[in-house]
Prior knowledge:
Blueprint: H1 3-13, H2 15-28, H3 36-48, E1 52-55, E2 64-69, E3 74-80, H4 110-129, E4 136-142, H5 150-156, E5 165-172, E6 175-178, E7 184-193, H6 209-223, E8 232-239, E9 251-260, H7 263-284, E10 287-296, H8 303-316, H9 323-333, H10 338-352, H11 356-360, E11 368-373, H12 381-385, E12 390-396, H13 407-412, H14 416-437, H15 440-454
Amino acid sequence: MDHFKELSDIIEAKKEEFFDLSDKIWGFAESRFQEFESSKLDAAYLESQGFKVKLGVADEDTALVAEYGSGKPVIGFLGEYDALSGLSQQADVAEHVPIQAGCDGHGCGHNLLGTADLAAAVAVKELIEQGKLKGTVRFYGCPAEENAAGKSFMVRAGLFDDCDICLTWHPGWMNQVNGNGSLANIRVFYTFHGLSSHAAGAPHLGRSALDAVELMDVGVNYMREHMIDEARIHYAIINTGGTAPNVVQSEAQVLYAIRAPRVGQVMELFDRVSDCARGAALMTGTRVDIKQVSACYDCIGNDVIAGRFMENMDKLLPIDYTEEELAYAKKFQGAITELDRASLKNAAKRIAGKDAAKLLEQPIWNFRVPGYAKSGGSTDVGNVSWVVPTAQFGIATLAAGTPGHAWQVVAQGKGSVAKKGMLTAAKLLAVTAFDFFTDEKLVQAAKDELAQRLEGETVPDALPRDLKPMIW
């Protein structure tokens, strides 16, 4: 039997189980390092399928490693299940209606992402169990991809040291293979400590921590002119020191995200941003505590794996959508902003040229977008890609033009369009893994490419050795 059909049939036979897992994780909507129910659900299911499961690895209560088989090659799937804060939203509703205002929601589709990787692992396991494949299949349950880079701690703990190939994907509104890219990213808390006093009666006795935060932000904003164009620096003032303007604020805190194309560049910018913080503390007579909490590395692409993704994706597309599903997607296209529409039009022009108008008539882009996608964001998949040949792709689970990290993603996360995309991703992951299980030369070629891309560069030490995973 053709392995495409065999693996697809396994996934299709269990699809209701995978839909149930995805929907439950969507409902749990647990954010970074708090994915207790989601990780337990995946762990229990994998154990029921015969996997050996370890939950609570790398000092992360919600991280897990599940494996089946023995020996080489070891092929890993990178699953995620964390949600985003403040994105609670009712399913299938094309207007912003939170389930509970201020609560979390799966605004990046990780309920689909992790479930597809799990489904692929289960399908491959079936062939190993039947003696049709030799080696080890491994599912990595990875917490806190958003903001806290849970995979970085798993890499540091050595959980990928014996892995030969890692595969993953991401939900979105394009079917496209990712290339070399994604920005490296360090997140840092700067906490300033001053002295409180009466702001009118004795201002000379106070030392304002809020003044220090504001001066630091001014310094960093002036710094933007003198850093590489591709770098990005963002900040959020987490603690303003209170709500009373007649009290000099004795404590204030700001969280920074520092990004650049390469992790070494981020580390240099981190030092400069920290100097701005120290300078602000000197100017205001305060002191500053600097606490790094995460480090995402840039993704090292792999053309060997990406090439297999492209070839296999072409065999699995297009997806068979019903008229009802196309109408559903059209409904959600009506819920995006004018800025999102402009971005969608630009994407259509870039991809289809003079036929852009025809492409814009399609509520779901049901074809493989040529070339490589390059993300302007960050992901801890990059940390894995420095130590294991790794690649990822996107599959359409959303109406074309849907903005990421938004309530519209949450609203579509339980729909049949999303689930068809999830199953397609699972099949693509499984059949690509099959290619590497059955071809030692292909595995070696992927490893050789990683070595060539690194050019002798060792894995950067951007994560403080004493830093433990933390909820913040």
